[in-house]
Each structure stands twice: as structure tokens, then as C-alpha cells.
């Protein structure tokens, strides 16, 4: 039989670093937009653009992850079928 693959988990430090990095980037961008010497509608437009960019990035990451997971499931099913065929095959059956 095949070995089951262990799902790789991120370490707590990597997860924390990713969350902290995201928070710093959002806060720095918000401060930059707030302190920008421009009309309120320009700052509002930039704020909406940043929010749209963030939601688009999350959606793209989810789509990529879902596609990768679907490919792994298909691969496992194909491998299970092949293993079943090989287990049932008797090379000396037709001799």
C-alpha cells in the first residue's frame, strides 16, 4: 500500500510572522493614505483600492490552494486505482 502523505503545517513562528507582517503592511498603508496631502476623495479612493487589492489577494490565494488540493485528491485516487490493479494482477495467470 502507499504511505499517506502528512499534511505540512506551518510553524507557529511562521504563522505569527505572516500575520504580523500583514498587519504592519495594512497599518503602514493606512497611515500613509491618512497623512497624504490630498483631497479627501483621493484618500478615500486609495483606501478603497487597497481594500480591493487585499480582498483580491486573499481570493487568489484561496483559488490557488483549492486547485492544488483538488489535484492532490485526483492524484491519490489515480494512485489507489493503479495499486488495486497491480495487486489484482497475476502475471502467471495466462501461462
Automatic annotation (TrEMBL):
Cross-referenced Pfam families: YiaAB (PF05360)
Keywords, in A-Z order: Membrane, Transmembrane, Transmembrane helix
Coiled-coil ranges per UniProt: none
All copies of domain YiaAB two helix, residue ranges: 14-66
Transmembrane regions: 12-34, 40-61
InterPro entries in UniProt: YiaA-like, YiaAB
Name recorded for this polypeptide: YiaA/YiaB family inner membrane protein
Organism: Streptomyces tauricus
Amino acid at each position: 500500500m502507499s504511505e499517506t502523505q502528512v499534511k505540512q503545517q506551518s510553524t507557529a513562528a511562521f504563522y505569527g510572522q505572516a500575520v504580523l507582517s500583514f498587519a504592519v503592511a495594512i497599518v503602514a498603508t493606512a497611515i500613509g493614505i491618512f497623512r497624504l496631502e490630498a483631497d479627501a476623495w483621493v484618500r478615500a479612493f486609495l483606501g478603497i483600492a487597497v481594500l480591493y487589492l487585499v480582498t483580491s489577494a486573499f481570493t487568489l490565494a484561496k483559488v490557488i490552494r483549492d486547485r492544488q488540493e483538488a489535484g492532490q485528491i485526483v492524484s491519490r485516487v489515480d494512485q489507489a486505482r493503479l495499486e488495486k490493479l497491480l495487486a489484482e494482477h497475476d502475471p502467471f495467470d495466462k501461462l
